[in-house]
Amino acid sequence: MATIRKIVDLDAPIAKVWDALADFHNVDTRVAPGFVMTSEPEGDTRIITFSNGSVARETLVSMDADLHRVVYAIKEGRPTHHNASVDLIELAPDRTRFVWTTDILPNELASHIDVQKSLAIPLMKSKLEQQYFR
């Protein structure tokens, strides 16, 4: 199984970043606009349309406010296994580390996921800092 991890430090307080991240169904407007074009809620699932036109059904697995951690999975489509998590770590009162990890099978999909995450990270950083920059 391949693991892809992206880490970015944000100039934003953890409480504000968590507020956006925990708003699971609004990732398209609060976390990753420009990468996620739409997010349609369906219970604990969000149907995501990405900027490249692909669509995924992301199911919320767990959300832990104490740990500042969200876990979601994609249970259908090309991957036979797709599990992802975002962990927030407070570095300072106005600095937060954003750790995004995905485990994927088949391994051949890892390079595609890595490229997509690399495109998403700067957009996410910009949005999360722009919303909450002091």
Kindly summarize this structure in a few lines.
The protein has about 130 residues and is of the alpha+beta class.
What features would you describe in this structure?
The structure is a single chain. With 134 residues, the protein is α+β, with helices and mostly antiparallel strands. It has three helices and seven strands; from the N terminus they run βααββββββα. A seven-stranded antiparallel β-sheet has the order 1-7-6-5-4-3-2. A hairpin with a 2-residue loop joins β6 (81-92) and β7 (95-105). The longest helix is centred in the C-terminal third of the chain and has 23 residues, at 110-132. It is globular and about 40 Å long. The model has no long low-confidence stretch (mean pLDDT 95).
For the structure shown, list the relevant keywords.
single chain; 134 residues; alpha+beta; seven-stranded antiparallel β-sheet; 3 helices; 26% helix
Instruction: Tell me the series of helices and strands, N- to C-terminal.
Output: EHHEEEEEEH
Q: Largest sheet, if any?
A: 7 strands, antiparallel
Cα-to-Cα separation, first versus last residue:
41 Å
Number of helical stretches of at least 4 residues:
3
Q: Could you tell me the number of beta strands?
A: 7
Order of strands across the main sheet:
1-7-6-5-4-3-2
Q: Quote the average pLDDT.
A: 95
Which stretches are poorly predicted, pLDDT < 50 over at least 5 residues?
none
Portion in helices: 25-40%
Oligomer: single chain
